[in-house]
Amino acid sequence: MCMAKANVSSEEFNYQQAPVNAASTSLKSKRKNRKPKLKKHSKSKDHVRAELDVLLEKVQSLYLKCGLSEMTTKAMIKPTEKKKKKKKKKKRRRKRKRRRRRKKKEEEEKEEEKKKKKKKKKKKKEEGEEEEKTEEEEEKKKRRRNR
After folding, report:
1. What is the pTM of this model?
2. Segment 97-130, tens digit of pLDDT
3. How many CA atoms lie within 13 A of 5 on its CB side?
4. Per-residue b/e over 89-123, b at no fewer than 16 CB within 10 Å?
5. Exposure string for 22-52, b = 16+ CB within 10 A, e = fewer
6. Gap between the Cα atoms of 30 and 23, Å rounded
7. Dihedral (CA of 127, 129, 131, 134) sign
């Protein structure tokens, strides 16, 4: 039996060794077996422009070989120029306007409420005065009767 095992080559004889430290090797193996994520390399704008310029030069050279003049190629292919960035419209002005409008509306509403309260007070006073007058007149009549 021992002789038979000795004749078998190491490639044919598959044996598994138990990990010495299971916890430490598992973490290492996870790190090693991790699939590398494909990173999207964002090229800078200048780099992209440079590539475009190189391609445009190649196209122009092909046009020249075909017999077209440079003017037509220049007219057909415009050189890359930096586009001006559009300024973002600032929302601050709008916000300020809205705030001002709200404040004005609130102030007007408060004034209207104050006016209404004043009118109510006046009405109450007038009604109270009328009631007082009527009460005073009744009291006078009672006094006269009592005499």
Report:
1. 0.27
2. 999 999 999 999 999 999 999 988 888 888 777 7
3. 4
4. eeeeeeeeeeeeeeeeeeeeeeeeeeeeeeeeeee
5. eeeeeeeeeeeeeeeeeeeeeeeeeeeeeee
6. 11
7. negative
Asked if 73 and 60 touch (Cβ cutoff 8 Å), the reply is yes
Please name which of 30, 11, 14 lies closest in space to residue 22, comparing C-alpha atoms: 30
Residue 41 φ then ψ, to 5°: -80, 110
The DSSP-derived string for 46-76 is HHHHHHHHHHHHHHHHHHHHHT--HHHHHHH
Instruction: Retrieve residue 11's tokens.
Output: 């490639």
Instruction: Provide Rg for the chain, Cα atoms.
Output: 48
Closest by Cα among 44, 43, 49, 74 to 61: 74
